[in-house]
Amino acid sequence: MFYFRLPKTSVLICIFVLFYSLAGNSETVVVLGYGRTGKVFTHKLHQKLGDDVKVVIVDTEPKRINEAVARWGAESDQHTFTYRTHYDQVLESEWADTIFIQELINENVWKKQALIEGVLDKLESAGKTDVVVASNSSSIPVSVLTEYLPEHQKTRVSVNHMYSPHGAASEVGVLYGPITESDSQVSADQSEKLLQAETTARTVERFNARLGIESFRLNNHGLEIKDQIGHSFNRIWFRIKEHFIDMLGKNLINRQLADLAFIIVYNRPLGIFGTMDMISLNTAIDIRHVWKTYGACSSEMPLFVRDMAGKGETFYPPCTRPDCTQKNIFRLLETSAANQEGLLEYGWQNGLMSPHWESELNRMVNKELNLEERYPEVAGHTAPDGGDIIHYLNVSSQLRMAVYLLAGITIQEYRHTVLRNSVISPESMDHLLNILTGQDRLFSRLNQLFPVSFGLPEVTH
């Protein structure tokens, strides 16, 4: 009979592992909001961390809680997921085990502020004064999220805005921005706040990395609030929506042509109006309200869009939203329409045209958009009459004008946000768009097309 003796340390390790497995997870992540992005974030938690963490899903809508239970199982069937309809229902033991909190509710400033304040108070009551709260805020900067918090809590909050649809990239922003050499001259109190904010940002970035999310640090705290609204790429996306909704309201363009131009330039799955349908018109209205409230745009969402939302309508009928598949690309082409002269006049009135716009457009279409090399859902397909996307761009003056205006809006805001205010570096902005669209250095290449004076001084909308 053979036997062997385990060293004492090995016996202790085995006992610890057995105890840990019986006791359950000792680390908890609280997910506040189980909407579209909340589902993506929760999936990443389970995919990357598995049973290593306990996940507490909090959502005030019973429908979403039911969706979470259907996806992850009832609490009696597993020990990883628990569900609450209010953060007050989270157990003290769960707060005590919490290592990270991600907020993912709709873009409502006041609801986010109240939720973050309440959660931080719960953490403090549980003695967890080092846990950070990350907010999936596409437009609201951390200076606004923390406006009514006591000073000692403000540096524990971070923007952690995950881009749809896959959540592979996130903007991270905290108070005071990244520490620089000039910060060595600040007071001891200010230096402590800088260090606390930097610790919060790095905590969020490390947690993102565990989930396979690449973080992009924002540097916008020192700017006016109106220039912090929308962060980096979302500022460009907002301006595109703002202008094309304006054009649609003035009957200068239809939604199909606008969406086709966006798909062609940005290589995204959906166009402008298709994306607003996806996120819901009410969310788009809320985001615009945030921009108006803090001076980042001059008007609320136009009445015709608010009326549509009030009636439960969308830009496209349900289940017919066109994406960038071959069939839908050519369906958009067949139904596209615009007022050519009206678009040209709109471009000049809004500072979106340059004196040599036709030659810039030719280079953009034939070179910078890389249409021949992009994935086959967008370029290279043959339409029923024998033409492809490049052919249509060369013969359709309406489509060419829409593409040029979209690029002009892009560069106008890019120069304001990236080149003038340095919210993010040009290299990081290019890399972010590469993750989102698969295009290499698109912003830098488009920026070189337009005259140096284009978009300056700032055009107010």
TrEMBL record:
Q: Which residues form a coiled coil?
A: none
Q: What UniProt keywords apply to this chain's record, in alphabetical order?
A: Oxidoreductase
Gene Ontology BP annotations: fatty acid metabolic process
Limits of the 3-hydroxyacyl-CoA dehydrogenase NAD binding domain: 28-182
Task: Work out whether the entry's keyword set contains Transferase.
Answer: no
- Its domain of life reads Bacteria
Q: Which SUPFAM superfamilies match?
A: 6-phosphogluconate dehydrogenase C-terminal domain-like, NAD(P)-binding Rossmann-fold domains
**Which Gene Ontology terms cover its molecular function?**
NAD+ binding; oxidoreductase activity
**Full protein name:** 3-hydroxyacyl-CoA dehydrogenase NAD binding domain-containing protein
